[in-house]
Write a structure and sequence with these properties.
Layout lengths: L5 H7 L29 E7 L2 H8 L5 E9 L9 E8 L6 H12 L7 E2 L2 E2 L5 E5 L2 H16 L10 E4 L3 E3 L7 H4 L4 H6 L1 H10 L14
Parallel strand pairs: 6-7
Antiparallel strand pairs: 1-3, 1-6, 2-3, 2-8, 4-5
Length: 214
């Protein structure tokens, strides 16, 4: 099995994390979702570290129709942007609350401030960009619920911000995890999360991942 040398990782991307401090675990679902008219499709914008893995994990979730990697609220890690994914999902199959449960359980560690592993900087922050008042209420209430229950050893630092802009990255960075499964970074940081998704959320796991399309 071919493996790229660690120096190659630095040449092809800025995402140099080496795992989460807290092991993935199923956390309680949102206590209350509130009333909301489910449309045919809905969008969610989530930031949780390097978009390689965030996109790759969500592409394996049933009910999700499209996942695009990019930057929210900026164009790069250096101008206030957050490495993010824009998710289009069917709320009749996958609720927004369930989406956040997976986000907090296996996608990233929400207790790390402006980082994921050694990936340090505001661009790697944990941030939920709500698209409507319903999403804002669910996100804020859920974070308060998890903090009150002391689900994590440390406080949650996930921000909840209004959607402003989203700038997709180029084609070479889309579906990066699917295209590069043997890259050392992917093997260490992202494939274990995929195993956790299948183990912890078997009814939501999609064996064949989505593929990026414009």
């Amino acid at each position: 099995m071919h493996r790229l040398l660690p120096v190659a990782i630095m040449l092809i991307g800025s995402c140099l994390a080496w795992g989460q401090e807290a092991p993935p675990t199923v956390i309680p679902p949102p206590a209350a979702a509130g009333s909301h008219h489910a449309a045919a499709s809905e969008k969610a914008l989530l930031a949780g570290g390097c978009y390689w893995g965030t996109q790759g994990i969500f592409e394996h979730v049933k009910g999700i129709e499209r996942v695009v990697a990019g930057f929210a609220a900026g164009h790069s890690d250096d101008d206030g942007g957050a490495e993010s994914v824009m998710i289009t999902f069917d709320p009749k199959v996958l609720s927004y609350g369930r989406l956040l449960q997976i986000y907090f359980s296996v996608v990233h560690d929400p207790t790390q401030l402006n980082r994921q592993g050694p990936d340090v900087g505001q661009g790697y922050r944990s941030d939920i960009f709500y698209m409507n008042p319903h999403q804002r209420r669910i996100a804020q209430a859920y974070i308060a619920q998890l903090d009150q229950a002391k689900v994590y050893r440390k406080p949650i630092v996930t921000r909840v911000d209004a959607f402003s802009t989203f700038n997709p990255v180029g084609l070479s960075q889309q579906d990066f995890m699917r295209k590069n499964p043997y890259l050392e970074y992917i093997e260490i940081n992202d494939l274990p999360k995929l195993v956790s998704l299948k183990r912890l959320f078997p009814t939501s796991y999609r064996a064949s991942p989505l593929e990026y399309h414009e």
